[in-house]
Amino acid sequence: MSTRGMGRIYRPSYTSKRTGERKQQSVWWVDYSVDGKRYRQSTRSSNRKGAQQFLVKRLNERGRGVPFREFEKVRFSDLAALIESDYRKNRRRSIARLQNSLSRLGMRFEGWRAMDITEAAIDPYITERLREGAAPATVNRELAALRRMFRLGLRARLVRRVPIIEMLSENNVRKGFVEKRVFLALYTELPEYLRCLVETAYLTGWRRNELLSRRWRHVDLDAGWLRLDPGETKNGEGRQFPLRGRLREAMTEQAVRKTVVERQTGRIVDALFFHLDGAREGEPIREFKRAWASACRRAGCPQVLFHDFRRTAARDMVRAGIAEAVAMKLTGHLTSSIFKRYAIVDERMLIEGADRLAKLHEGTATPNKEVLAIGDLAR
After folding, report:
1. Class of residue 260 by CB neighbours under 10 A (exposed 0-12, middle 13-18, buried 19+)
2. CB 234 within 8 A of CB 93
3. Are 343 and 209 a contacting pair, CB within 8 Å?
4. For 240-270, what is each residue's pLDDT tens digit?
5. Which residues contact 229 (CB under 8 A, 6 or more apart)?
6. Residue 165 falls within a domain, yes or no?
7. How far apart are CA 228 and CA 213, in angstroms?
8. Could you tell me if 291 and 302 are in contact, meaning their C-beta atoms sit under 8 angstroms apart?
């Protein structure tokens, strides 16, 4: 079959080594051109009609300007490079997490053709990762990276399709809070240089990295604001927290410490949270894992995480009667669903709710003599 400008199907001939005769292969091939480049490709079919359909499909693909013959050359590593470039170009803060996911995915799919990474190949990967003890949330991050790789590949016309990837259900929402008595016990055990940082996290619910990246230019004691500039937050939006009550006192005390350290060292202290003594005096706090673990152990709360302050602050704002929209602005939650995930109702809030209900019913007369017993009603 041959149509001018449309390509053709044919069965290649060959010479039999045994008889020397010219014969035709049983498998049909296609011959077509894309952007002036000629392609010959086996249809892997001995059915003439199937070969014609294969050619039509290739020609339709050519009509969209896509050299789909190149699909067979695209590898997992090509898609991995694509997503890493996308993260760097958009300055995504989670590139380290992405690289961990790509490393895990690469242990299975490195060297694979992209077209072979199908649902049938992904399902065993999920099963194996869970068998290794990986948490569903961890596997989901890896699957999300894989799906994003294919979407970028589809946009770049490197793959035909994005495989259907179903995420695992997660049940990893922590439900603990840092009650005030626990916070006070922990605060007492902390090294002095960490106290202002931890108290600020407890009062604001801001993330660890958001606080550690604060500089004195982000603090306005006169106007009474602690600020995060646009692009510095996880969701990209700027944020500010009013300096009121104990938070203002903590910032004022930290300003005094800054002045003392600058006089003692002769250096300018730019970071809001900094070391107070030793060789690192005046330097920004970057890591405090050991100091945190030791203080938690001495305070009798080894299970407490720094991120628990975020959940606690959201819960406390709900307790204080702050409107959800305002609380979300203060803590930096972009969606209501995520905020509600943190503002979990605890036992104390349930008791407070029951107390309010009891007060509502106080003074309501109960006609005891006229009320039938449950046993009477059952008769």
Report:
1. exposed
2. yes
3. no
4. 999 999 999 999 999 999 999 999 999 999 9
5. 218, 238
6. no
7. 9
8. no
Same domain, 337 and 190: yes
Where do we find the tokens 């903590």? Answer: 250
The structure tokens listed for 171 are 């049940």
Segment 111-159, tens digit of pLDDT: 999 999 999 999 999 999 999 999 898 999 999 999 999 999 999 888 8
Q: How crowded is residue 347: how many other Cβ atoms within 10 Å of its Cβ? A: 7
Tokens at 41, concatenated:
């490709």
Terminal-to-terminal C-alpha distance of the chain: 90
Answer yes or no: is 62 within a domain.
yes
pTM of the model: 0.56
Residues 232 and 127 in one domain: no
Cα separation of 46 and 254, whole Å?
A: 81
DSSP, collapsed to helix, strand or coil, labels residue 3 as strand
Same domain, 310 and 211: yes
Provide the domain limits for residue 319: 180-352
For the stretch 86-117, what's the b/e string if a residue is b when 16 or more beta carbons lie within 10 angstroms of its beta carbon?
Answer: bbeeeeeeeeeebeebbebbeebbeeeebeeb
Beta strands 37-45 and 28-34 are antiparallel
d(CA 127, CA 248): 51
Closest CA to 28 of 42, 13, 14, 15: 42
- Could you tell me if 112 and 195 lie in one domain? no
**Any domain includes 363:** no
Helix residue ranges per DSSP H, 117-244: 119-131, 136-155, 180-189, 192-204, 208-212
